[in-house]
Records
---
Amino acid sequence: MWFELIFLFLDLICYCLFGPTASLPENKYETVFHTDIFEAFTPLPEYPKNVTRSYTFELLKVYLAPDGFTRPVWSVNGQYPGPIIRANIGDRFNITVINRLGDPSAIHWHGIEQRGINWFDGVPGTTQCPIPNGINFSYVFDLQQSGTHWYHAHILAQLVEGLRGPIIIHDPDDPNKHEYDYEYVMTVADWYHTPTDDPRMLPLLHSANYKGFDPIPDSADISGVGQYNCTIPTCTPSKFATYKVKEGKKYRFRIINMSTMSHFWVSIDKHPLTIIETDGTPVRPATVDALRINIAQRYSVVVHANQPVDSYYIKARIPESSLPVNNYTFNFDSPLLKNDQVTGILRYEGAPDKLPTYNGPSINASDCYDMDASLLKPYPLNPPVPRDENLTTLEFEINVILRDNYLQGVMNNSTYSPNLTYPTNKRIIDGDNFSTSDNVYYYHGLNSPIQIVLNNTENRTHPFHLHGHSFWIIAQGEIGSHLQPLNSLKFNFDDPPFRDIITLKELSLNVIRYYANNPGVWLLHCHMEWHIELGMVVQLVELPEIFSKYVIPNDIHRLCTSI
């Protein structure tokens, strides 16, 4: 009886503080990790009421060999990539993180908008203090959007070390649910053999007078399995990532690019790919021979197993322009620069357990751009795209520069430096003042339309991610040698892509829009991990007049006192 009264009392407190979206689902569900990424699955059962799905993430350093080369890997429960976590839209995640890394950490839930609970976005210095070593912390949030997403560390370049995994949120009303019979998750990623704290990695990137580019990966992998040219004792040749299919069936492959810095082109010999989702948004089915997928992007594609029973190569290739290099760059002689393709296998049931006999033409991975916008039309169309009335515009000029002999990633000529002991969301509620290096920008007006203009003045592409929102990509164009006025662009208000990652072409002008309806502090940043480390980040304070009245839970405050 006392326990029931306590839970009712806590539920009432949550309702009063955070509103009805935080009310606890009545049903609980004993959740089991989907630990085998090569095991097909179907959507989760529907329940009369939403359920709470509880997971435990134990953050561990373990020795693994994804590409055959053994190295320490920052992992969730000893796995790379981390285990798949799944739920239905409307469910709740209760994820307890146990940090045993020996370093502070935190988990960002990429693609989950965290409406009304900004403090669970998992960004040290912005939404929380990091989780100290030896401390447990629970992220508890309701799932208000569906699709293919992922989780990853957002501190100390731990993403590079392997701390990342898939999130799948099923929607019983998915308009494309009848397009396939089974589902798989597939990840593509670059991979490094050298830990980021090695003097030749992050310390070199941050050193004075560094003249190189971003550190070059050693290899790449599909779903945690790659092939490295093993010529040293600590390396043993690995197998191929292998997905098994039944003749005549259709498979939804949820593809996630979990890379540090690499864009990929993905294809399967003799099997076209039909796109049905991008970054959590269902799209009208569109068929392509190869899929461009930039860092942190997600696509669902349908593969029809309609070829003769056999094995077929899955190919993921990194464009040359994704790996700029000179003689000062760490790992400038990486084998990946000579063999920029990693392969897996699509194997039909009944086919012999051997390598494919057919090897189709190599992918012509000619650029690091997004898929053509005409292939990514939301289905059904989202609410009306924000027009020009009452529009708030923020404009950012983006570059990597050498300032005072140090490389810096800059937005509007300013570099971001996080305050790990006093996060921005708490500073706003406390009424604290901000310095230039905090890179803080405000906008106001509940449900007002927001326009972000991104001017990429660099001669290379950048994948930009906005936390807390998906957005409409309504215009993109070249800027040439001078910034052009927006009216020189062609705007698409009818059916623009709706996603949370946009690829900025080199020397380009890009316009995105969304509605201000999620109070909090949200990062806007390049998703190349090296550029986050260089400070190519701004903090967008959305609706401070509302957010400043929020009450941050005590568990969040306790992290700051535990550091």
Note: The chain has three domains: 2-34+45-171, 187-375, 392-562.
---
Amino acid sequence: MDKNKTLAQDVLQKIGGKENIISVFHCATRLRFELQDQTKVNEEELKKVNGVLGIKKAGTSFQVIIGPNVSLVYDELCNMAELDKKDEIKENLDDVKEKRKFSFKWLFDVVITYIMNSVAPIIPILIGASIWKTVVTLLGPDMFNVISNKSDFFITCNFFFEALFYFFPLYIGYTAAKQLKVNPMWGIFLGAMIITPSFMALVGVRESISFFGINVPVSNYSQQFLPVLIGVWIFKYVNKFLTKYTPTMIASLIVPILNVMIMAIVMFVFCAPLGSYLSQLLSDFFMYCANAAAPIRIIALTIYTALNPFMILFGLHVTTYVAAVTAAAPIGFEAFVLPAGVITSFIIYGMALGAAFKFKKNKDIPMGYFVSGFVAGITEPSLYGVCLKSKTSIMVLVICNAIGGLLLAVFNIKCALMASVNILSVVPYFSVGSTFNVVAGTIIALGCCLMAALGVNFFAKFDEQ
């Protein structure tokens, strides 16, 4: 029997049969029942059904969390119970909006929720693209050298990965717009604006371009999503203001024209260069600290490593990394930015491993993240799919990185220039200077990986949905 049909049959049985259903709808992830008698629902058995990710009661509504295949299960259930099918309803139909006083905790919650909900829909693509990237990395010249990096298979598999990350601003633009309940086509447009071929062709050719009389820097924004997240949020209020105050007779023409003009200025003058400006400031500060006296250096490296995942997340690490590589080029190693990058990567992998042991269902998903990272050095699936999934996982990420950075600073660990951070490269990474550097660096990296796995397993809280 088809798994969706089996799931629908099990759910129907556990909620008391079709006689107990008044009506049923579905949203993006849940079956929403209005029942004759909720006491007839066998909740404990329902939770154990394979394919049910959880249950929730909201007022008179009894909700069964299924996941992205909910529409297929809904169709089967309606056929079995001989119920009329309804269109999908909004996910937040039963949310109660409350006015909350401003606080930094409230602001943190809003920002993290906005980021997590914008990234979450992209994760399935991230999984698929990363697995193929892992395959070609393993088979390619940097690992087992089974295939050439010029082979059609290698090139084609890289297309999959590039299709996601080159166009990342477009994906984020769409999902962010959906989160803020604005037309998602505008979100895609804002993302496309900063990676249009005409603009990208100027990267490396010109340092800046005049935009409505304002000089704006020319840079590659293809893998960044901070500009789009901010841009879509600003667009929401720009569009709302223009729609409200533009005469109805001309609104359909004037509002889009003004939206494009205003948001082009906002994106190119403010949102897109913001990351570059912040990246340069952070680079100047941390590279100064890297050459400072021991107490300042130890504190700075601890802070830098703790912040490193978020700098990577928002694309703020690039300038600092370039500065570190430049400093390392004459001598072959560096003792601040590069070691922190290795530690952060292994902590991210460790968190995926911890989630694989923690999850009761769907263990294969975080385990796939772990394999992609630990073997092939691909951090994105674990970072987006585990580390940013809850506030507690973010706390584990920050604390483990801070401890790792402190250990790096105390033992003055040096790191060589290499391409990918994985289990096969960890020893060569630290193979500079003394034997102590190799042993201590490897122990810190693998120890932090284990610490992160344990941290996730014992302290992080996830909704497996």
Note: Strands lie at 21-26, 30-35, 54-58, 61-65, 208-211, 214-217, 333-334, 415-416.
